[in-house]
Request: fold
Amino acid sequence: MIPYKFTRIYIDSIAREDEITRRVLEYFPDVPYSIVEEAETFSHQLARLSLTEGKRILWLTHFKGRFLKPCPGTATTYRCCNYLVINETTNCPIDCTYCILQGYINNPAITIYTNYQKIISELREISHLNSRRILRIGTGELTDSLALDPVTRLSERLIAEVQKLPNILLELKSKTDHINHLQEVSPEKIVLSWSVNPEEIVASDEHKATPLVRRLKAARKAAERGFLIGFHFDPIIFVLDWEELYSHLIETLGQFIPSEQIAWISLGSLRYPPQLKEIVLSRFPKTRIFSGEQISGLDGKSRYLRPLRLKMYKAIYQKLREVFGQPFVYFCMESEEMWKKVLDKTPKTNNDVDWYFAQHLSARFPQLNLPKPMKEIYQQNIRFGASEK
Ligand code: SF4
Reply:
């Protein structure tokens, strides 16, 4: 059983017959539920819930817009990687101190969109429109990909579809060990990835997430089954003994996962819209996440001073190379200068970062038969279809 407790399930009448709705009700037979006829009026009521109350409510409805979108980082002044996100659920039963959703979502209830068939048609369309390009697509942007997946079983549907499409890698990103339900699934073109932080930070700031070693045991199991593995050092958090803690963390990762199965590793230091700080301190007054000196970045988000970021990234990258040889490491939302100083690469655009990925993935995993990387393809922007607007 998943470890989260819910007090009530609300079902939009439009979603009452859906497969995911049935699964949710079967999984939680003791949680009372109600059918809602006036979804729009009702969502205003949900908006009045506190963040903590919202995490105990499930709201099942349909998403009317486009599920598949460019990662929000794409629109910033920092380098992004042309990643695409599927927002199949908003909000999350885990409760990380630093979670930016706390300042971002209008409706604190955990909202599961049950009309997943629309995601499938969007995947087909974008695959077709960009047939000569490798697309990296992930759930887990506005939630944790696997926290509720044993309930909804959505990933199995998406995996089955992606495996019919020649150019999509699907990433499921998590802070849980919820992979048992994926035991029968083919691992081809699927990256299971874990956000990692030293155990001390997991314990103090990743409330209700799975402890680190259990995550890594799940990662090892997944690697043994043939899934590609990703790690996200994000957010990297400054604490006084950060160097020792992150060094130990990387050594621990090395004991669990062979480097040849690592698809990618991201680095991103703590960053957040300034208004988040007050919300976080009111909910988690003891947190130490704001201890390093911070400035407002080019995107208006608070982040550590550049020299500190540089020092942390350099130390972490050096340790990653010591433990894993030549892993593919990239930054999430960092400047071109940081890319140059730490990774010795100079991406001028997001398309350049995408191109690095394409070269790396085809060279490292030829068995995936991904489209052969051609530079001119990656100089163009990803094409989105009419149904996705
Ligand atoms: S796992 Fe991700 S989405 Fe969930 S609370 Fe933590 S940061 Fe937020």
In short: The longest strand covers residues 228-236. The chain is about 35% helix and 20% strand. The pocket of iron/sulfur cluster is lined by residues 92, 94-96, 99, 101, 143-144, 175 (CB under 6 Å).
